[in-house]
Specification:
Elements (H helix, E strand, L loop, with lengths): L14 H6 L11 H13 L9 E6 L5 H12 L3 E5 L6 H5 L1 E6 L8 E6 L2 H8 L2 E5 L7 H8 L7 E3 L4 E3 L5 E6 L11 H5 L3 E5 L4 H12 L4 H20 L8 H12 L4 H13 L3 H13 L2 H8 L14 E6 L5 E2 L10 E4 L41 H19 L9 E4 L5 H25 L11 E5 L4 E2 L12 E4 L8 E8 L9 H18 L4 E11 L2 E9 L23 H13 L5 E8 L11 H17 L2 E7 L4 H8 L4 E3 L6 H11 L2
Parallel strand pairs: 1-8, 1-9, 2-5, 5-8, 13-19, 17-18, 17-20, 20-21, 21-22
Antiparallel strand pairs: 3-4, 6-7, 10-11, 10-12, 14-16, 15-16, 18-19
Helix pairs in contact: 2-3, 8-9, 8-10, 9-10, 9-12, 9-13, 10-11, 14-17, 15-16, 16-20, 17-18
């Protein structure tokens, strides 16, 4: 255990401040992140401009961000306090408020106004350790901007009554989750003022087990290892399938505690872990399938019928689980091991699932004709002249070439196509859409109420505190003499781009049909919800004069209803130059006025094009392109539907990759993802 570091030895804390210094419980285990931050702060504390006093911790729920912030309070003997941000937070929540106070000793009912500092100001002036929780949920960007100058070394805050100067011992720790509902990226100015950042993920299995022992007093190595392995697998599966819930340390510790008390391992798995991740039947089925495929569901079921560990003699219904030094499970029926768990096989070891069958979709609608055959509803078809189409195609080609100027692909010969829809395309689209429409319409019905939000920039008068003083209210005796700006409504503002890899390998295993169905489902859902959508396909090396081919099927600007039928022209063609395609599509998506911009890529393989766009060279270009446009505000999601899923996950990141094993699930999974961004 390291010694505490008193940052200012001459400083004496008051009794109140000393009570705010966090005391580490016996169950606390120092993490590598805590040791690293402690050493960095201690090493740089007296180095002037190199001083580290603003720290960012980013990670999933339950990864230990708040615990780490409190531990640093104990390490540096600083009073700990926190502020939890919320969506409608305004500057008065940061800087404090002026409130009316009635003097009880004054019988003339004279009203006085007194300034009350916020918790941020108190920590800032008194030199405490302040944890700022979830600033990414704040809707008004100006609120965070108010902290920019405060986080400068020797910075200050402009308060209503004075200027507050930063105490030399003040440490700010910003903690935030990654990519949850309501998440907004930290503005660049605030992020730039951070001197040290930590990415906190789920700890290793060994660390998880040690923490659980310390917290619960339960010491069965085998059970702790099995439960930790389950949590790790669920966390990886949730990220790979874009399931928003989290399997973290909190879930693990409470699950271990329940098992230690004698509760059913299988039942508590749902109540302590799975239902905290999600209650959606389809998502539960995905998680259960992952557990079953790794043999963990069966092992967890068998723990419910565990024998006494000292039971002697053989029993045909009893099996042993042996754990090697590296934590892996190994069955060794020929060797007796006193440390092994002896389990009785359960008569009912089937997995639990609330999943409803896909066949059981009883949706009553008017989408059927007289003979019961589904039909497709047409909208009025506008007239688009050939000249307009030609000019629009020319515009797309010009913009595409501008997108790649000065990039790795500058010299690549490029053509943007606008495929024309035929009568056969129309018929194929209608047949394919008919089977998808019931699901799409039901999701639209559930989603549209979420879009009915109002936006207001008006001021609400007659408030006890606020940002604007109303002189005409000063004569009122109810003290409501301020106005507050009404916060903007949470208006969903989303634009979607779908990119489809049209490489030759897409022709295998039904991938092409899955991509077409996904394109139809996304188009119908987005148009039904009023969400702008564009759908592009791409291939490479069709000829020496056409090294890169872009197929602009659906565009934001085009109002031609018939363009959706052109989606049936999606086909397997040649190679794929992914980085160039993403660059062109991303630039078009950036022009959309919507705040949230989501680009979904459906791909079955790694980037590969002539003469040498492959391997590390292509991967480097892909990562550079993704990083560049993420900084510009685009969120990427890859649907991996081929054999190169691990390589695609490496390019896009595990948290941004959908692993689609069953291609029939692709349209529904993408619609669920879109709905979460609203």
């Amino acid at each position: 255990m390291k010694q505490n570091c008193i940052l200012s030895p001459s400083r004496l804390l008051t009794e109140e401040e000393q009570s705010l210094v966090w005391q580490k419980p016996l169950s606390h285990i120092e993490s590598e992140a805590e040791k690293r931050i402690y050493q960095e702060v201690k090493r740089n504390w007296n180095r002037g401009e190199m001083k580290i006093s603003t720290i960012l911790m980013e990670g999933d729920a339950g990864s230990g961000k708040t615990q780490l912030a409190k531990a640093l309070s104990a390490d540096f003997n600083l009073p700990y306090t926190k502020v939890t941000c919320f969506a409608d937070m305004d500057k008065s929540d940061v800087l404090g408020s002026i409130l009316p106070v009635l003097n009880e000793n004054n019988k003339s009912d004279t009203v006085e106004y007194r300034y009350y500092p916020s918790e941020i100001v108190r920590a800032y002036e008194n030199g405490w350790l302040l944890e700022i929780q979830e600033p990414t949920v704040i809707r008004d960007a100006a609120v965070l901007m108010a902290l920019n100058s405060a986080l400068e070394p020797g910075g200050s805050l402009n308060l209503p009554t004075r200027i507050a100067h930063r105490h030399p011992d003040f440490i700010a720790i910003i903690t935030t989750n990654r990519g949850y509902n309501g998440y907004r990226p930290l503005n660049e100015a605030l992020r730039d003022r951070v001197q040290h950042a930590e990415k906190l993920d789920l700890p290793t299995k060994a660390v998880m087990m040690e923490r659980a022992k310390a917290k619960t007093g339960y010491y069965s190595e085998n059970v702790l290892s099995l439960l930790a392995e389950t949590i790790i697998l669920l966390d990886e599966t949730a990220k790979a399938n874009a399931i928003k819930g989290v399997a973290g340390m909190r879930s693990y510790i409470f699950w271990v505690d329940a098992v230690a008390s004698g509760a059913s391992v299988k039942n508590t798995l749902y109540h302590k872990v799975l239902y905290k991740i999600t209650t959606d039947p389809q998502e539960l089925a995905i998680l259960e399938q992952a557990l079953a495929s790794h043999g963990l569901l069966e092992m967890l079921s068998e723990l419910d019928t565990v024998y006494q560990s000292h039971l002697e003699g053989e029993n045909p219904e009893v099996m042993e689980i042996n754990i090697s030094d590296n934590g892996e499970y190994a069955a060794e029926p020929d060797k007796a091991d006193k440390n092994a768990i002896r389990l009785r096989k359960s008569a009912d070891s089937e997995g639990h699932s609330d999943t409803s069958s896909d066949k059981n979709t009883d949706a009553s609608s008017n989408d059927n004709g007289e003979n019961g055959t589904p039909f497709y509803h047409e909208l009025d078809k506008p007239i688009t002249s050939q000249l307009q189409k030609k000019e629009f195609r020319k515009q797309l080609n010009t913009e595409a070439r501008q997108s790649v100027q000065g990039s790795f692909h500058d010299a690549i010969k490029l053509i943007v196509h606008r495929p024309e829809a035929t009568a056969q395309n129309r018929e194929e689209y209608q047949n394919m859409a008919a089977s998808l429409l019931p699901v799409i319409r039901e999701l639209i019905r559930k989603t549209n109420p979420l879009l009915e939000h109002k936006v207001s920039a008006e001021f609400t008068k007659s408030q006890l505190y606020g940002t604007k003083f109303c002189a005409d209210q000063a004569a009122s005796l109810d003290f409501r003499v301020f106005a507050r700006k009404r916060p903007p409504g949470e208006e969903p503002s989303l634009a979607v781009a779908l990119r489809i890899d049209e490489s030759a390998s897409m022709s295998a295993f039904g991938r092409l049909d899955a991509a077409k169905q996904a394109a139809i489902a996304l188009y119908e859902f987005c148009t039904g919800c009023g969400i702008p959508i564009m759908v592009y396909g791409d291939t490479a090396d069709r000829s020496k004069l056409e090294q890169m081919s872009i197929y602009a099927y659906v565009n934001f600007e085009n109002k031609d209803i018939d363009e959706k039928y052109a989606l049936m022209n999606i086909q397997a063609r040649s190679n794929n130059r992914d980085g160039m395609a993403l660059r062109i599509i991303s630039d078009r998506l950036l022009n959309a006025p919507q705040k949230t911009k989501l680009l979904i890529s459906i791909s079955d393989g790694q980037p590969k094009a002539m003469p040498d766009y492959t391997g590390d060279k292509a991967a480097h270009d892909m990562k550079d392109t993704l990083q560049e446009y993420r900084r510009k505000g685009i969120q990427f999601l890859a649907a991996a539907i081929g054999q190169d899923k691990e390589a695609i996950r490496e390019l896009y990141g595990a948290e941004n990759t959908l692993d689609i094993t069953d291609l029939k699930q692709l349209p529904a999974r993408l619609l669920q993802i879109i709905a979460r961004f609203l």
